[in-house]
Amino acid sequence: MPSDQECDQRRNEKMIIAVDVHYKASAAKAVSIEFPDWEDEVPWKINIVKIEGYTDYIPGEFYKRELPCIMCVLEKSDLKQAEAIIIDGYVILDDQGKPGLGGYLFQELNKKIPVIGVAKTCFTGNKRHVVKVYRGNSGNPLFITSLGMELREAADLVRRMKGNFRIPLLLRKLDRETKI
């Protein structure tokens, strides 16, 4: 984590925010990490919120469970500084443009902050709104979707993120943080 002096220097910089949510029993843990550069290896800030009594999963309506948790943790960030928000999942689900979790987040944020979805599994019926990104030596791609930013640009940004493996280093750190 950065020193107080570094924090003061970065207070007015643009930030990239990545969010994830993990569920255990009746509580959810929402975590966000903030970092100023796509090639950073260490988060500038980590925010954690525990949510009791979240909404049950409804098949086909995943966003109804996840979005309120994401919005809770985003309250800890200065969204005026957000360059983009990265989610674990899809922004657009199919070729017709059906919104996924990231699409609903983009709407919730009044279309003011680009949202990039980084998914590990293929969602069938989505060829127009997804770019496969291969990282490291992995033969398995990440599936990138976005709103508020050109799709190829979003894919290039994820490709640039630090790490020698399929999942970028900071996104792996975020995933671990949600599960501890």
Secondary structure topology:
Elements: H1 4-10, E1 15-24, E2 27-35, E3 45-52, H2 63-74, E4 82-88, H3 101-108, E5 115-119, E6 131-133, E7 142-147, H4 151-160, H5 169-179
Parallel strand pairs: 1-4, 4-5
Antiparallel strand pairs: 1-2, 2-3, 5-7, 6-7
pLDDT under 50 segments (min length 5)? none
CA(first)-CA(last) distance: 18 Å
Helical proportion?
25-40%
Largest β-sheet summary: 7 strands, mixed
Number of strands: 7
Strand order of the largest sheet: 3-2-1-4-5-7-6
CATH class: Alpha Beta
Number of helices: 5
Strand coverage percent: 25-35%
| CATH architecture group name | 2-Layer Sandwich
Q: What overall form do the CA principal axes indicate?
A: globular
Structural class: alpha/beta
Overview of this protein structure:
The structure is a single chain. The protein is of the alpha/beta class and 180 residues long. It has a single domain (4-179), classed as archaeoglobus fulgidus dsm 4304 superfamily (archaeoglobus fulgidus dsm 4304 fold). The protein contains five helices and seven strands, in the order H-E-E-E-H-E-H-E-E-E-H-H. The protein has helices spanning 4-10, 63-74, 101-108, 151-160, 169-179, and strands spanning 15-24, 27-35, 45-52, 82-88, 115-119, 131-133, 142-147. The chain has a seven-stranded mixed beta sheet, with helices on both faces. The longest helix has 12 residues, at 63-74. It is globular and about 40 Å long. The two termini are 18 Å apart. The mean pLDDT is 91.
